[in-house]
Design a protein that fits this description.
The structure holds 2 protein chains of 2 kinds. Chain A is an alpha/beta fold. Chain A starts with 6 loop residues before the first helix and ends with a strand. Chain B folds into 3 domains: 2-77, Roll (Ubiquitin-like (UB roll)), CATH 3.10.20; 83-119 and 181-226, no CATH class; 128-173, Alpha-Beta Plaits, CATH 3.30.70. Chain B is 27% helix and 12% strand. Chain B has 7 helices and 7 strands. Chain B has helices spanning 19-26, 79-95, 100-108, 128-136, 169-173, 186-189, 218-226; strands at 2-6, 9-13, 49-52, 59-62, 73-75, 143-145, 152-154. Chain B has a 5-stranded mixed beta sheet, sandwiched between helices. In chain B, a hairpin with a 2-residue loop joins strand 1 and strand 2 (9-13). Chain B is globular and about 50 Å long. The chains are: A alpha/beta, B alpha+beta. Chains A and B meet through helix 19, helix 20 and helix 21 of A and strand 4 and helix 2 of B.
Chain lengths: 616, 227
């Protein structure tokens, strides 16, 4: 790759790539993010390549391998450009047919996505309700870009925001744009990005300033950042170079969690290609501005997503948060001024510059502008990554995009913000999603995890699960957090085993308040949120566990029994699948479960074809 | 000089002074456990929390680490602070009941019981030993390992240390292990209203109305049977 030495040369390269595209031939787009690969996308790619070569179609059909596009429930999926035809859950055996159809300009109606509401097949991706109701500013770029080909990024207007910034040559203008856009940190706290950059820019130059991309994404169930890291790493690099130019930083760090091997691989490739091309490193595009980015891998600690602990981890020390003030913009990595932003925040920067701050601010609400990517998971029909404008209601996401409940059970609540967040009950689903209204309801936006729960989810179990996670992940320095999470878990464990008392419930509330008040860092301060929010909205479930020793959702193992009712046809299927030999019964006779041997694993219930297994 | 208010009283101190030092200067008592003169403050025990700020944005911060800011409004004994201190002491008693330092704190703050499952650890991970070893004895032979429940103290890889000079500084500063009440004369064991009797309990009749934080041992059992 030849190094580009001036902005003019870059402009020429970009125009050449854009006009050099052959828009007449169709493109087969296969999404191969981690979710796609786990569903078998690699086999699809292999077969596609083989077919294209064998049928001599390599110059008649383009092949593009991309990162995750968001409709994870339907992976492995194929998109055909320019029509926009979408084939969900592709089977390898259909690949030959699909490629033949693409070559002939036809579509295969029997392989379309079928909308369960209307029972009609839908041909185009943008007509499917899941996609139609989103505003995919960032995610839409994933399907256009092959993450390991920088020319592909440039061809799709990549690095043109950087070019605009260099051509303007005014650092304060960038910060003003960031402020006008109203962009708030997408890591969860929602601190205004423009303000943070201004604070960093006002620090005296010459000491060396750092810019950090927080790619530690630790929340269980949240993988929005992963899709951007894998699918469009250059958008983050571009955002960071723009930020560095605005604030005077000369060293950047991307701190990525070690558990994202594909993201790490794509980042390494992207950084190397950016260096080779000349948009990163010394004397970027001949402007005299130098900025380099280093990749640092995490070591498996959730607490290192907290910005002060992250800085210690980058320095090579134990990941322990410290008190703020002093803030990172005053004293950060190695004592130097540092600004830390989330992956999604960085990915939004090129969009802010490209659209212009005023237009960017038009989407969303007055205090929370722009879009946010949520990972919609749990008991909904369509799970995946959804990008929506701020201000959309929870109900719209769960029902219009997610398709509502995935079974006959009613949706009960939504958990937002991961282990630091809280549960919002179904009766509040017309709450708009923005930083302030979620906080008022007792939850937080967090990094964007959204877990949908139905009546078969036990809220005590949910609180126990998240408290268990936080108990393990607490750094352990603050006594109130370390011991507080342990003791909260102990009480929740007692309650879920039927050994809880009402006085323990009051103690739990009191303890949760103290942990929230006294702990130094964000992890401890938000650790009681799962407990406090479930107590606030679902206290009756706790009381049922305590007073009647009953788990209404049928989850807490000590409090439930499995039994077989009269629907049983005597097929003996469950007897064969029970690992504990706990079921007995002759053929065509109603079977019986021995409660002493039953370990409540649930296999019999899932295998029964007559719906005869009852959990109470 | 920075001007701020502590419990309504104006105070003027040098920049870089912590809230704890400023409060001490005015004579306001703030309990501490992991703080020691001569060592850099750490903020692990959370006992020294005070309330700063006003209205809904008021929050609790550890006074040993928070430096003074102009115009700050500090309250060292608001109801929120008192509740927090009492709960932390309860948690301390639930972990390390045999430490005299913790028992003294309990009686000084009116905490007579703890409502959790009783544990008998001999380390509260306050970090005094680590900081003593590093900052005063210049050895840095011990440190923290792990996180969360599994956090512990030790030498690197838990093997015998070359840098440890066996100075005993760590034992000297430890609130949990060194200051264990070990008097064998019952009259002298009572201090600040707490009884710290090493089992088997001696002459328990004299101390019938004292709160004993330890698990009932044989001596208690025998006594109850006699009744």
């Amino acid at each position: 790759m030849e190094k580009i030495k001036s902005i003019e040369d870059f402009k020429l390269l970009q125009e050449m790539l854009i006009f050099g595209r052959d828009t007449n031939i169709p493109t087969l787009v296969i999404s191969a993010g981690t979710c796609g690969q786990a569903s078998g996308a690699n086999d699809i790619i292999r077969v596609a390549k083989r077919e294209l070569i064998n049928e001599e179609l390599t110059n008649k059909i383009n092949l593009r391998i991309t990162g995750c596009q968001g409709f994870c429930q339907m992976e492995p999926s194929i998109l055909v450009e320019p029509d926009g035809t979408f084939y969900p859950r592709v089977n390898i055996n259909n690949m030959k047919r699909i490629i033949k159809a693409i070559a002939q300009g036809k579509v295969l109606e029997d392989l379309f996505f079928v909308d369960p509401e209307t029972e009609k097949p839908i041909a185009k991706q943008n007509d499917i309700p899941f996609f139609k109701n989103q505003v995919r500013t960032i995610l839409s770029r994933n399907e256009k870009v092959d993450p390991i080909r920088i020319y592909n990024y440039i061809e799709n207007n990549g690095y043109s925001s950087l070019r605009k910034v260099f051509e303007k040559g005014d650092r304060t203008w960038i910060i003003e744009e960031a402020k006008i856009s109203g962009l708030r940190g997408r890591g969860g706290a929602g601190f205004p990005t423009g303000l943070k950059w201004e604070m960093l820019a006002n620090q005296p130059n010459g000491k060396g300033k750092f810019l950090v991309c927080n790619a530690d994404e630790g929340d269980p169930g949240a993988y929005m950042d992963r899709s951007v890291l894998e699918g469009n790493p250059h958008s983050i690099i571009e955002g960071m170079i723009i930020g560095a130019y605005a604030t005077g930083a000369n060293q950047g760090v991307i701190y990525v969690r070690n558990e994202y091997p594909l993201a790490i691989k794509h980042l390494i490739i992207a950084l190397r290609q950016a260096h080779e091309l000349g948009v990163l490193g010394e004397n970027i595009l001949g402007t005299g501005f130098s900025f380099d980015i280093k990749l640092v891998r995490g070591a498996g600690a959730f607490v290192c997503g907290e910005e002060t602990a992250l800085m210690r981890s980058i320095e090579g020390q134990i990941g322990e948060p410290h008190q703020r003030p002093p803030f990172p913009t005053q004293k950060g990595i190695n004592g130097k001024p540092t600004a830390i932003n989330n992956v999604e925040t960085w990915a939004n920067i090129p969009a802010v510059i490209e659209k212009g701050a005023k237009d960017f601010a038009k989407i969303g609400t007055k205090n929370s502008s722009g879009t946010k990517i949520f990972s919609l998971v749990g008991k909904v029909k369509y799970t995946g990554l959804v990008e929506v404008p701020m201000g959309i209601t929870i109900g719209e996401i769960v029902n219009d995009i997610g398709g509502g409940s995935d079974s006959n059970a009613k949706i009960k609540a939504v958990q937002t913000g991961g282990p630091s967040g809280g549960c919002i009950p179904a009766k509040m689903f017309d709450l708009p999603i923005d930083y302030d209204s979620l906080a008022q309801a007792g939850s937080i936006m967090g990094s964007g995890g959204m877990i949908v729960m139905d009546e078969h989810t036990c809220m005590v179990d949910v609180a126990k699960y998240f408290t268990n996670f936080l108990k393990d992940e607490s750094c352990g320095k603050c006594f109130s957090c370390r011991k507080g999470t342990q003791r909260m878990w102990e009480i929740l464990d007692d309650i879920s085993n039927g050994k809880g008392t009402i006085t323990q419930l009051e103690l739990l509330d009191e303890l949760a308040q103290v942990v929230k008040d006294t702990t130094m860092c964000g992890l401890g301060q938000t650790a009681p949120n799962p407990v406090l929010s479930t107590l606030r909205y679902f206290r009756d479930e706790y009381v049922e566990h305590i007073n009647n020793k009953r788990c209404p959702a049928g989850v807490c193992k000590e409090l439930i029994t499995y039994s077989i009712n009269e629907n049983c046809t005597g097929c003996q299927l469950c007897i064969k699948s029970c690992s504990e030999n706990a079921i007995s019964g002759k053929k065509k006779e109603r079977h019986v479960i021995d409660p002493a041997k039953c370990i409540k694993c649930g296999v019999c219930k899932s295998i029964c074809k007559s719906d005869a297994v009852v959990v109470k | 000089m920075i001007n701020l208010k502590i419990n309504g009283l104006p105070v003027s101190v040098e920049e870089g002074t912590t809230l704890l030092e400023a409060a001490k200067f005015l004579g306001f008592p703030i309990p501490t456990l992991c703080f020691m003169e001569g060592l850099l403050p750490y903020g692990a025990c959370r006992l020294c929390v005070v309330e700063i700020g006003d209205g809904p944005k008021a929050k609790l911060v550890s006074s040993c680490t928070y430096r003074v800011e102009p115009g700050l409004n500090v309250r060292t004994a608001s109801s929120r602070v008192i509740k927090a201190r009492k709960m932390i002491i309860e948690l301390l008693l639930a972990t390390c009941p045999q430490s005299k330092v913790i028992q003294d704190l309990a009686s000084a703050h009116g905490v007579h019981q703890q409502r959790f499952r009783q544990e008998h650890d001999d380390c509260i991970l306050c970090g005094l030993c680590v900081r003593m070893c590093e900052q005063q004895m210049m050895a840095k032979a011990i440190g923290f390992q792990g996180r969360g429940e599994k956090r512990s103290l030790g030498t690197p890889f838990n093997i015998k240390s070359d840098t440890c000079r066996l100075c005993g500084g760590c034992i000297y500063v430890c609130p949990a292990c060194q200051l264990r009440c070990t008097y064998n004369q019952p009259e002298k064991t009572v201090c600040n209203g707490c009884a710290n009797l090493t089992p088997p309990c001696l002459e328990k009749e004299k101390f019938d109305d004292m709160m004993c934080y330890m698990e009932p041992c044989v001596a208690c059992e025998i006594k109850n049977d006699k009744k």
